[in-house]
Amino acid sequence: MTTRQYLTWILLVLLILLSGCALPESSSPTEPPAQPTALPAAEADPTPAAPAQAATAPAIPTPLPLAQSPTETPSASPEAVPTSAPPPGTAALVGGQPISLAEYEAQVAVAQGYYLQQPGVDAESEAGKVALAQLRRQVLDWMIDQVLIEQAAIREGIMVPDDQVEAEIQKMQGEDETRFNQWLVANGLTMESFKKRLRIEMMGAILSERVAGNIPTSVEQVHVRHILLSTEEECNDVLAQLEAGSDFATLAKSASLDQTSAPQGGDLGFFPRGLMAPEFEEAAFSLAPGEVSGLIKTQFGYHILQVIENDPNREVPAEILPALRQQAFQRWLESERANATIELLVE
Question: With bands split at pLDDT 50, 70 and 90, how would you rate the model's confidence at 121?
Fold first, then answer.
């Protein structure tokens, strides 16, 4: 695993813990849950998540990312000049609402603990120090997003009664309250902070449904083949062969590094906007059926595309809808961040 992959995994675990997930019966309370389950009451996960959480169509190749990589730290609004001193023990202010420094440090400690347990990790190396600093910022950014979600839910009049929160906790505790309490302590949570996070998660699920629940189920989609190569030189060589009359599917089978689509001649099937890397998507939706692209560079290498057909109003497969809803909620959340006054008080 690379450092970035560690960070993504750790943040995913942290998001699961803070999202109020059930305590798996087979896991130790001192270890991250191996197979966390989502809140029973949550119909949609409002949290911007790692690719593993988003449902994707089987035809979409693994080398291609979603439109936004979760390992990229969201850009916060410029720090505002405070009009008054923030409360003591504050990590950040979001629209004047403080994020507890103690709670922030507790969650950072949990995330760092998981990271440092990984084999080969050297916290004293330059790369290790950079990774830990990035992890701290990712934790804070996520906590800022949770405050923005909470504030928006309150503005919308969304409330979750205490009895609903208690009912969810009872489901999670099951018949072993002691073990559940041990799990809370091991993961830097108190019952009070856990209830708060659980309530926000439940409010956020309702908000997410309002924001992204009504996205169209029939949208423009494009049917594409692609060839993935590792160097510009290889890409230019394949382009020359295509210009000389070679068959695209045959070249994809023999040359493409995408082992998911190569056996099918590079065929990715249909996909809508919002799932692929921006450069890939822009080319795919700008080509006419039968046209072949030039060299397209993404973080995974060099691509050549061929558009097979375009459908202006094709039904979205059920397995893709959650990813599109996540993208819609992410765009809404980015807008909330851009319009919020956010003051960071920790490095």
Answer: confident
Give me 63's structure tokens.
């080398």
The verdict on pTM exceeding 0.85 is no
Q: What is the pLDDT of residues 179-194, one digit of tens each?
A: 999 988 888 788 998 9
pLDDT, one tens digit per residue, over 258-290 is 999 999 999 999 999 988 999 999 999 999 999
Which helix or strand (DSSP H or E) is residue 176 part of? none
> Look-up: residue for tokens 């073990």?
179
Nearest to 43 by CA among 206, 253, 194: 206
Residue reference for tokens 């989609």 = 221
Count of Cβ atoms closer than 10 Å to residue 33 Cβ: 20
Residue 224, both tokens: 């594409």
**For the chain, how far is it from start to end, CA to CA, in angstroms?**
27
pLDDT of residue 84: 64
CA 125, 51, 187 angle in degrees (round to 5)?
60
**Amino acid symbol at 165:** V
Sheet holding 218-229, edge to edge: 267-272, 218-229, 301-315, 296-298
Q: Which residues contact 303 (CB under 8 A, 6 or more apart)?
A: 226, 227, 228, 229, 235, 280, 283, 293, 295, 296, 297
**CB crowding 92-125: b at 16 or more within 10 Å, else e:** bbbeeebbebebbbebbebbbebbeeeeebeeee
Q: Angle, nearest 10°, between helix axes 126-155 and 101-116?
A: 140
Count, residues in the chain: 347
Report how far residue 203's alpha carbon sits from residue 119's, in angstroms, rounded to the nearest whole number.
38
Of 64, 63, 61, 67, the closest CA to residue 269 belongs to: 61
Helical residues (DSSP H) of 213-340, grouped into ranges: 232-243, 248-255, 278-286, 321-339
